[in-house]
Structures are given as C-alpha cells and as structure tokens.
Amino acid sequence: MKAAVFHGAYDIEVTDVPVPEIGPDEVLIKVHLCGICGSDVAAYKTGMYEEGLIIGHEFAGHIVAVGEEVTDWASGERVTANGVIPCGQCWFCHHDRPTLCDDVLMPGVSHNGAFAEFVAAPAKGLHRLPDGLTDRQAALIDPLANALHAVRLTSLQPGDRALILGAGPIGLSILQGVRLAGARAAYVTELSLARAAVARQLGADAVLDPRQTNLFSTLDRLTDGQGVDVVFECAGVPQTLQDAVTLARKGGEIMVIALCEEHVAFDFMTVTMNELTIRGSYCGQEEYPLTIDLLAQGRLQAEPMISHVIALDDIVEQGFRALTQPGTEAVKVLVEIG
Questions:
Q1: CATH of the domain at 258
Q2: Which of 37, 107, 199, 335 has its CA 20 to 30 A from that of 183?
Q3: Does 158 lie in the same domain as 117?
Q4: pTM, whole model, 2 decimals?
Q5: What residues pair up with 12 in beta bridges, in sequence order?
Q6: Is there a single domain that holds both residue 261 and residue 317?
Q7: Count of structural domains within the chain
Q8: Which residues contact 135 (CB under 8 A, 6 or more apart)?
Q9: What distances in angstroms separate CA 193 from CA 37, 50, 307, 329, one per listed residue?
Q10: Could you read off the pLDDT of 135-165 as tens digits, one per residue?
Q11: Maximum CA pair distance of the chain?
Q12: Please, what is the average pLDDT of the chain?
C-alpha cells in the first residue's frame, strides 16, 4: 500500500509499505480522507517525530477487518479513531485527565497513522460516523474536539469576550467553540486574507490585521474599555505569545493551544501585576463524541475551513511545503487516499 513515511525534518516520502497486520483487539481501516494537522507541520519543520513513522491522525474511513477479540465493530462501518487513546491505568487516567496519559497511544504520532491506504487502530479508540456526516466533515473532528477541550478548560462564561490570535484550523475551531459557550463577542487576529475571510464567515465580530492596526487600542474601543476576558493563542509564534499578555484584561486568562517550536521571552511582570491566568490545552480526547454530535446537528461547521483536497502523491509539494511557506493562503488541507 502507499503511505507517507516520516524520515526527519523536511523529509517525508510517499512510498510502498506492507498493509498493517492487526492484533486481536484491533481493526483494519480503509482510509478515505486524512487532514494535515498543525502538529504534523511542526514535526515536518523540527523533526520531532520518530523516523520511519507513517504520519496522519485526522481521518475518516471504513472498517475492512476486525481482530478476533473485537465484538462491537463490523466490516463496512464508517469510523474515525481518537487522536488520543489513553491506557486507562495510569494516575492521570484514574484522575480524569486522559489527554495527559503516561502511556498514551496517538495514531500518526506515537504509532503508525492514516496517511496510508490502510491503518490499524485499537477498537477501544474508535468512533462511529453518523450517516449524515460526510468524510470531509469527519476529517475535522480532531481539531474541533481540541478546540472544544480548550474552551472547556477556560473560565469563559456566557457574556464574556474572547480574542483568538490566529485563524488557522484551530483558531477557527476555537471561534466556533466560544460562540457555543455563549461569548458575547469574539475577535480574531490574522495576517492571511483567505483565513480572515473564513473567520468572518464563521461569525467573528471583528478580524484584525496586527500589521495594520494597534490591537490594544482597537480592542479597548471595541470593548468600551473593558478588554477581553480570555485570549486564545492559536498561532504558535513568539510574537503572538508575547502579545497575549498585554491584550488580556486585568484578571483575564490566556489559553495557549498552538505549538511554538521557539523559545519565547515572556513578560512575567505584567502577568503578576495584572493577576493573569495562563493555561495550556493539549488535544481533545473526551470531546470526540460531543464534536461528532455537534457536527451532525449542524452546530459546528467543517466545510468553510477546508481550502484544499489533494492526492496522497502530492502531500509533500502541495501539502507540507505549501503550509510552511510564509503568507500561505491554505487553511485546512485534506489528503484523499486511494
């Protein structure tokens, strides 16, 4: 079968590999679509995945074979697999923190993933896809679940104001999440015209280009001097992390979601004097069922975020290299398999 194999920084090869053999508690899935995640792009730039890994974890497909101990799943069922499959035995699992599991299985990160014609997955990590949910929508379950997890970890209350730094797939998912949580206003910063347009389509109250406007004074005007309650850092660059400290109101909160590969000089004096709360959010294991329901109900939108659908053979040139170019207009890139 064809698969995208990771060999290190800026080195991904589409090549032929054996179809995976499944264990007694696993299923074999024929992959239909798989999205390129921001963490995949970060690994492409830094080499942080293990060499020889088949990457990809945001996928939709159907089961073609089941292991001998699998009783709840059958061939032909449309499924996705959770991006985080916890062990269920460690301290974090026993204290309801499965995304921090000490022995976590992460398809496409810790184990072979879904940029391949077939992927093997533990049955305990599967989720059924409703008939009304398309494969394209299903390929966005993971980033949307990550966003819902981040919003739920904050102190955001109905009537609060939110600022979202960066309108990539995670930022656009956060935008939808804060709306569902009852935010009275959601402001977005973004450099890309294409991503800014999607943010407006998804209901941002204002989309600001930090190259053309003073964010602090503009937000002060938009909020009648009250400021924003929660800042969501979704860009993963030092500048936005530094900006977040000055853009949150006194007593406000900063939620860091994007991965930043660089060291960041941070203004902890302002953090202390303004009594800011800083939190991180990692993945969204518990939110998968909720995300599937909200997508099926039409209360979350995936289609506006999909900018490109490419073939597996084009994953390097039209996928990873395009997404690492300064000023890219790509939003979410899906890879069609087979």
A1: 3.40.50.720
A2: 37
A3: no
A4: 0.94
A5: 6
A6: no
A7: 2
A8: 32, 33, 60, 61, 78, 129
A9: 20, 35, 13, 7
A10: 999 999 999 999 999 999 999 999 999 999 9
A11: 63
A12: 95
